C-alpha cells in the first residue's frame, strides 16, 4: 500500500499487478514486502542499468533521482526537502479530509439519535 501511494504521489500510478511485479523484481527474502535494503536496491539496479525500461521500478528511480554533479549538494538537499514537504502537505490534506469525514459521521449519528428520541417521545402521545 505504501508503494502504491508513493507511486501515485510521484505521478506514476501503478496497477496492482504492476506493484506486485515491482516488489518481485527486488524482493530478496521472498516475503512480498520491500525492506529498506530492498528499496535501496532499486536505485543500485537503476544505476547499474539492470532495470527494464518499461518497469515501474525504472520509473520510480527516474522520478526520484537528481544529478549532484549538476545540481550540487545544496541543490540535491533542496530537491529532497521539496519532496518531503510536498508529501507532508498532501498528508495534511488527507488528515483534514479524514477529520471532516469523521465530523460528518458524528453529526449523522447524533441526528439519528435525536430522531430515535423524538420517535420515542412521539409514541408516548399516541
UniProtKB/TrEMBL annotation:
As recorded in UniProt, coiled-coil segments are: 90-117
Task: Tell me where in this chain the EF-hand domain is found.
Answer: 14-49
Keyword list (alphabetical) reads: Calcium, Coiled coil, Metal-binding, Repeat
Record field: transmembrane: none
Q: Which domain of life is it from?
A: Eukaryota
What GO molecular functions are on record for this protein?
calcium ion binding
Name the InterPro entries on file. Answer: EF-hand-dom_pair, EF_hand_dom, EFHD1/2
The name this protein carries in UniProt is: EF-hand domain family member D2
Q: Which organism is it from?
A: Phyllostomus discolor
Amino acid at each position: 500500500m505504501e508503494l502504491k501511494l508513493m507511486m501515485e504521489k510521484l505521478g506514476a500510478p501503478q496497477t496492482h499487478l504492476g506493484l506486485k511485479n515491482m516488489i518481485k523484481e527486488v524482493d530478496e527474502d521472498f516475503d512480498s514486502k520491500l525492506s529498506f535494503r530492498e528499496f535501496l536496491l532499486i536505485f543500485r539496479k537503476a544505476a547499474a542499468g539492470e532495470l527494464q525500461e518499461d518497469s515501474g521500478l525504472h520509473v520510480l528511480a527516474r522520478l526520484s533521482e537528481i544529478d549532484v554533479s549538476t545540481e550540487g549538494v545544496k541543490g540535491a538537499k533542496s530537491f529532497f526537502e521539496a519532496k518531503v514537504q510536498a508529501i507532508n502537505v498532501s498528508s495534511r490534506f488527507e488528515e483534514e479530509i479524514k477529520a471532516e469525514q469523521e465530523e460528518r459521521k458524528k453529526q449523522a449519528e447524533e441526528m439519528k439519535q435525536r430522531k430515535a428520541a423524538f420517535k420515542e417521545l412521539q409514541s408516548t402521545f399516541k
